[in-house]
Amino acid sequence: MPTDDLPETFHVTTDEQLRAVSNLTRHRIMAVLRFEPATITQIAERVGLAKGSSSYHVRLLERAGLVKVVRTRKVRGVTERYYAMAARSIALPDPGEGGPDVLMRHAVADLEASPADGERHVRMAHLRLTDEQFAELGERLQALADEYRELSDPSLPDASLVFALFHPRAHEQAVQTEQTVQTEQTEQAVQAEGDAK
Q: Contact at 8 Å (CB) between 83 and 70?
């Protein structure tokens, strides 16, 4: 695989980097570059962009340090640049409670855009686990993803694997939050009514 000499993980730490990865088009450009380098023209063709748009998005990714030029070649007097990922994977910061999860939003968008007649496996399971079982399942899922990433062949069609193992907000906490919001809305309505008199 051409990414063997790359760092394992790129940690997104700045606002510029977060803005770069938060865009769905740039997410799809990085997916193109995941396994092999590509030129602006090749990226544009694979993502379905105009060449100018492809160049713009790649420049933003390069400026943020997420992609880099790995080789160049002269074609009819013009220098073609081949871009690749700066690392084998990208680690995003925790969005925090109630914050948007960029990775999952991109995954859902890609799933919804995938061919309706294509094979896909989607499942949600509600579990009750001990802390040890939760940690073990997380490790096994990660190991499985890593195993199949190593088996990936750039000559084969793309396939995406996304998993999320998490503790949902407790029902009591969700009810409390909803009640707090309703109380605040009622107080605002009462105050607005008083102001109008």
A: yes
CB atoms near residue 193 (< 10 Å): 9
Q: Which residue, chain included where needed, has tokens 């060449």? A: 51
Q: How far is CA 190 from CA 176, 178, 195, in A?
A: 21, 18, 9
Q: Is a pLDDT exceeding 70 seen at residue 186?
A: no
Strand (E) or helix (H) holding 132: helix 131-151
Alpha-helical regions (H) of 23-122: 24-32, 40-47, 51-63, 102-113
Q: What is the DSSP letter of 96?
A: -
Residues comprising the chain, all counted:
197
Q: How many CB atoms lie within 10 A of CB 93?
A: 13
This prediction's pTM? 0.70
- 184: tokens are 């605040």
Q: Token digits for 77?
A: 């007097």
The residue-averaged pLDDT of 7-18 equals 90
How far is residue 49 CA from its own chain's centroid? 19
**Nearest 5°: phi and psi at 170?**
-60, 145
According to the model, what pLDDT value does residue 158 have? 87
Report whether 68 contacts 84 (CB < 8 A): yes
Q: How confident is the model at residue 108 (pLDDT cuts 50, 70, 90)?
A: very high
Place of tokens 């993980």: 9
Beta-carbon neighbour count of residue 168 at 10 Å? 8
Q: How far apart are CA 80 and CA 82, in angstroms?
A: 7
